[in-house]
Write a structure and sequence with these properties.
single chain; 186 residues; 6 strands; alpha+beta
Length: 186
């Protein structure tokens, strides 16, 4: 019996490069608390089909907010959408977020995704924002790639400074530097 069978879909470093609708399996689910003391669920998804099969969408958080009646209604709707997508039937009582977590791991559903806002380090991650039963047509990337952030320069590839670039001490310089291909180390 072999130790394992080579599978190009089962490699480290696989990542989702486009937003879209993805059929996923919940591979990890945890209950925790936000910094404000509200209960939350954190879910990790693995894409189960299509060109990004095997890639993960980690750290998706759903927060239970019951500070006022409007927030409570939104939380009930958000969590109800999740459990219905996971197969819960009408009339099923949900006693706690822990009960959702206990039944969620290994279940499949589809999630709509979009690129989130840059975090405090300037990184942008894929966020799941809606939940559905598994899509029989498979995962459907939409072609929207990760936006360029402040970590990656938005300046032209020529190296020319943008007008009024106050952070560049050479922005108003008329000097240019010519480098020949033979001077490059590669």
């Amino acid at each position: 019996m072999p130790l394992f069978i080579t599978d190009s879909n089962n490699v480290l470093g696989a990542s989702v490069q486009e937003a879209g609708l993805y059929n996923v399996k919940i591979v990890k689910a945890e209950v925790g608390k936000t910094g404000r003391g509200q209960q939350k669920i954190t879910l990790d998804y693995e894409i189960i089909d299509g060109k990004y099969q095997g890639a993960t969408i980690p750290y998706q958080t759903l927060t239970w907010n019951d500070e006022d009646s409007n927030s409570l209604k939104k939380s009930q709707r958000r969590f109800n959408t999740l459990v219905v997508a996971l197969g819960a039937t009408n009339g099923t009582p949900i006693d706690s977020l822990q009960s959702i977590v206990n039944s969620a791991v290994g279940k499949t559903l589809s999630v709509d995704t979009e690129w989130g806002q840059p975090n405090n380090k300037g990184n942008i991650y894929l966020n799941a924002y809606n939940y559905h039963p598994v899509n029989p047509d498979g995962s459907q990337p939409n072609g929207v790639k990760r936006p360029i952030t402040g970590k990656t320069s938005d300046k032209p590839a020529t190296g020319a400074p943008l007008p009024n670039d106050n952070n560049n001490p050479f922005a108003n310089s008329n000097d240019s530097v010519d480098v020949k291909d033979s001077d490059l180390p590669f």
